[in-house]
Amino acid sequence: MDWKNEWKILLLMIGGFLIAFFLPVNSIRFQNAIIESFYMLKEYAQLHVIFCLIPAFFIAGAISVFVSQAAVIKYLGAKAKKTTAYAVASVSGAILAVCSCTILPLFSGIYKRGAGLGPATAFLYSGPAINVLAIILTARVLGFELGIGRAVGAIVFSIIVGLIMAFIFRKEEKAKQQMMLPESEVKRPLWQEVVHFGIMVLILIFVNWGKPSINFGFLAAIYNAKWVITAVLAVSFGIVLNRIFKMKLWKILLTAGTIILVHFLSNGNPIFTFVTGIIGLSYFTSTSNGEMEDWFSATWGFAKQILPLLFIGILIAGSFLGRPEHEGLIPSEWITKLVGGNSIWANLFASISGAFMYFATLTEVPILQGLIGNGMGKGPALSLLLAGPALSLPNMLVIRSVMGTKRTIVYISTVVVMSTFSGLIFGMIIN
Fold first, then answer.
1. CA 343/CA 272 separation, integer angstroms
2. CA distance 413 to 409
3. Alpha-carbon span 412 to 418, nearest angstrom
4. Is the separation of the CB atoms in 408 and 400 below 8 Å?
5. How far is Cα 53 from Cα 312, in angstroms, rounded to an integer?
6. pTM for this structure?
7. What is the tens place of the pLDDT at every residue in 191-238?
8. Please, what's the largest Cα pairwise distance for the chain?
């Protein structure tokens, strides 16, 4: 018997017993925290999953299948034009949609094969920071300002981080060999990919178009017509699936007929209508061959990986932080003292805390929702958003093994300092 392993199991059992034994079930704060966690979970399920996350999963799945990863990575080599290399590296996160640990094998591979340190570290930062799902959910849950601030800040941030790293270690990098990657096969014209992704992104935008505060004008007109616009886009999407991706016409017509039937049976309820379309798309892509099947598999992979972690993160965030104006286990005055307002200390504390924490993909959003609701300033919130997803303690240890202690310290310090001042500037702008 492996007694060393058995002792670990025993200690875990004792720890679980002690937690259960001393569980403060009679505490009003504890009871409120449990209720808040399920309130937040319900709120996410009702407001953010069907119209926001599910379309975003399909977009992320399409990106991972229809945009060649090799076609992106090949532009990061030392022989590539600097403008091209940094431009590709800075937006690669939208294509890869990975977390701070998932990006590490890709970073290690391109760096060891000859990628320049600057583009490689820009790639390392942007991979988890510009996750398309995270940007969409941030704007949807935390507000348009933070969503735009995160997207623009992360893109500019990754370029600056890469340039700083390349400049500081320019002498060491001169000796690196040039990286040569084979040309990627182009399966279809670029305009077809643009139309495909453009329609999906527009559907995502219009189904989430919020009601404006004033019920007249251009924004109100779009809101009142958003489901008509979505229907037109859905028809266009069906044409694209048939003409470009060769999906059978009868499958598209059957799905369209079912959507129309459900629309009338549900008295025009958009949730039932939209879910019917999602089910039809899921069924016919999953039962097809080639790219269509790969698309569904990638989409399902994102959903399977992210949703359980997101829901667990929501429950934890809800219990500890509560919702706006509803406290969880942590008193709001503690959060206000540490990260309230827009001081250098608040932004620095948020950056350092985010850098050492591990955020599974998208879990930073519900955590920040609870923090903001309890008094966290939007400047420190952006500081945490810029530092947290791109760094974590496991991430740091692996980076050190790839590019050494000195480069790792410079990289981490640059991210923390830039996150701090980015949050500080953002807080000044919006206040």
1. 47
2. 6
3. 10
4. yes
5. 16
6. 0.71
7. 887 888 889 988 988 888 877 767 777 878 888 899 999 999 999 999
8. 75
